[in-house]
Design brief:
The chain contains ten helices and twelve strands. β2 and β3 form a beta hairpin.
Length: 341
């Protein structure tokens, strides 16, 4: 089934009558996913938006509980604030679609369900578009993704000459496909596959980082130029650190959570002044170990999806692919030295 280019706006206008449809576009100078408006220009030619779509499921600031004292009875109340609505995410790329698997693991498994995340996740329908080009910082194939297909998406689109091939991949996708049909026609357009130009061998990185956990040679060199600005964590589609705070007004208040960063020294500060990660080196090591080692230990998958945002936006060009290459070299050298000892 083909969705012609000229029918795309009509389809999105129809879908947005019943659900909030998020599309990639420029907002205040930054590309991100925002509600569809027919008069706005979409950024479908963007390889990746600067900001990932994780805020649809895990908002940057999110109210959790409303609490206080009832005026009439004087009784205390604590009410969860479960915010959710039917949403369609249109134009998501394979790497960002894969990031939802990681967030699902963190928020919905291991015996704990985050009700705020789940409420949004259950009502989200995803429409992926296969990449037609890649950035020089994209390395998703090295992390096990395919830039051409997102098998986790409810509907997969692939763009060719004049239109999109449309394929439903889940029951939710099949249901939504009924709304596509008036805007589509039978057939198929020819589509060319694309491949990443940045490649790195991440096949043994977890085991190699086990060997190099305390390696001063690796972590000192990688952390030297880091500014601990946190940019990498805020543009990353899989970072999910948050802080919890509250706002009080008279006898009522709201408890909320907001994005935080493990790159900030205050993140691990404890009462009494103790900080288990006091040095910049400790924080840089923790971030990369979490992405490439700790998360796989706990959930069986790496927390990096190869989108390349952290490489592109880091002000000092701290590159996770360079770390992987360097870790592979150092681990091999240590194993060789041990074998000859």
């Amino acid at each position: 089934m083909i969705l012609k280019d000229e029918m795309l706006d009509s389809l999105l206008t129809e879908l947005s009558k019943e659900q909030i449809v998020y599309v990639p576009k420029q907002v205040n100078g930054t590309t991100r996913f925002a509600p569809y408006v027919s008069s706005d220009k979409m950024k479908l030619d963007q390889v990746n938006t600067v900001m990932p779509p994780k805020d649809l499921l895990f908002p940057q600031t999110q109210n959790m509980y409303h609490y206080g004292v009832e005026k009439n009875s004087g009784n205390m109340f604590i009410d969860p604030v479960i915010e959710s609505a039917d949403q369609i995410l249109f134009g998501v790329r394979s790497c960002d679609m894969r990031s939802f698997d990681c967030l699902d693991a963190a928020f919905l498994t291991k015996g704990y369900i985050d009700e705020f995340y789940q409420a949004k996740r259950d009502r989200l329908t995803t429409i992926a578009i296969g990449c037609t080009e890649v950035s020089e910082t994209c390395f998703c194939e090295s992390m096990g993704q395919d830039p051409n297909h997102a098998p986790q998406a409810d509907i997969q689109l692939r763009h060719g000459e004049g239109g999109y091939n449309v394929t439903a991949q889940t029951e939710k996708g099949e249901a939504l496909l009924e709304k596509f049909k008036p805007f589509c026609e039978e057939g198929e357009v020819e589509v060319a596959d694309v491949h990443c130009t940045l490649n790195v061998d991440a096949s043994n990185i977890k085991d190699n980082l086990d060997i190099l956990h305390e390696s001063h040679e690796l972590w000192d060199s990688m952390s030297y130029k880091c500014l601990n600005c946190g940019t990498c964590t805020f543009v990353c589609p899989t970072c999910y650190c948050f802080d919890i705070d509250q706002e009080n007004r008279c006898k009522e208040g709201v408890r909320f959570r907001c994005w935080d960063s493990c790159m900030f020294s205050e993140y691990t500060a404890m009462a009494g002044g103790h900080n288990p990660r006091p040095e910049k080196r400790d924080r840089v090591r923790n971030r990369f170990m979490h992405k490439l080692n700790y998360f796989e230990d706990r959930y069986g998958k790496m927390l990096c999806v190869g989108c390349g945002r952290c490489i592109e936006k880091c002000p000092v060009s701290l590159d996770i692919t360079v770390l992987i290459d360097r870790a592979n070299e150092l681990a091999q050298a240590e194993e060789t030295e041990a074998a000859h000892a």
